[in-house]
Amino acid sequence: MIANTPKPPYYAVIFTNLQTTDLKGYGEMAEKMQQLAACRDGFLGIESAREGLGITVSYWRDEASILAWKADVEHQIAQKLGKEKRYASYKTRVCKVERDYGFPVA
Amino acid sequence: MIANTPKPPYYAVIFTNLQTTDLKGYGEMAEKMQQLAACRDGFLGIESAREGLGITVSYWRDEASILAWKADVEHQIAQKLGKEKRYASYKTRVCKVERDYGFPVA
After folding, report:
1. Cβ contacts (< 8 Å) between B27 and chain A: which residues?
2. Enclosing H/E stretch for A17
3. A-chain residue closest to B54, CA distance
4. d(CA A85, CA B61)
5. Is the distance from CB of A63 to CB of A11 less than 8 angstroms?
6. Whole-number Å distance between alpha carbons of B10 and B22
7. Under DSSP, is residue A5 helix (H, G, I), strand (E, B) or coil?
8. Model ipTM?
9. Contact B87, B15 (CB under 8 A)
10. For a designed S-S bond to B49, which of A36, A38, A51, A74 qualifies (C-beta 3.0 to 4.6 A apart)?
11. 3-state secondary structure chain B
12. What's the CATH class of domain B21-97?
């Protein structure tokens, strides 16, 4: 679903990735990470799609909430496993959303 | 593919959408728009995936190049058709990429 984010400014983390073929348990871990992220203070929403290339965009109130989630212990374990086994390559971009618009207009 | 963007700061346009079922000619037009965007001054790259939800992130040197592309005549026609027929809903977010990191490190 399209995330129901508040009026800008807020933050977006664009995580773009290509997987390896070693994906045992990947789906369960990805789902758990989404659930944990959603419980964090400052979390605003998440959007995700994979079509070969995977794109996950999570939205946050501010940089502090992004850094706190990055430092979460369970998330750190997932990040380590991601680098070691699950991702052939990835790029993470931390952005400030300056303006947005949509259709139909909310 | 993961876009090979320069060192921040630069801009990202996150376009998240849900399609209608009236998609005759959609693929061709989407492909043409990507080709035209890639020719614009200030274009840095594009990443796209659809899994029910469609996410396209295009990267740009600055706000001026984003606004110039939005005002392009052929792009305007595609935007109008998008609202009238192709998209049940969408959200466009214009963001300043403040920092990024990747794996493997380039």
Report:
1. none
2. strand A10-19
3. A49
4. 33
5. yes
6. 35
7. coil
8. 0.95
9. no
10. A51
11. CCCCCCCCCEEEEEEEEEECCCCCCHHHHHHHHHHHHHHCCCEEEEEEEEECEEEEEEEECCHHHHHHHHHCHHHHHHHHHHHHHHEEEEEEEEEEEEEEEEECCC
12. alpha beta
Q: Residue with structure tokens 């300056």?
A: A98
* Chain B residue at shortest CA distance from A50: B49
Which residue of A1, A14, A59, A98 is the best one to mutate when testing the B interface, meaning the one whose CB has the most B CBs within 10 A? Answer: A14
Point out which residues pair with A13 in neighbouring strands: A58, A94
Are residues A25 and A86 in contact, defined by beta-carbon separation less than 8 angstroms? no
Nearest to B2 among A1, A5, A18 (CB): A18
Q: How far is B57 from chain A (nearest CA, A)?
A: 9
How many Å apart are CA B104 and CA B106, to the nearest integer?
A: 6
3.40.630.40, 3.40.50.720, 3.30.70.100, 3.40.250.10: which CATH number matches A16-97?
A: 3.30.70.100
Q: Quick: pLDDT tens for A51-99.
A: 999 999 999 999 999 999 999 999 999 999 999 999 999 999 999 999 9
Torsion angles phi and psi, residue A40, rounded to 5: -75, 145
| B 32-91 near A (Cβ less than 8 A) | 47-55, 57, 83, 87, 89-91
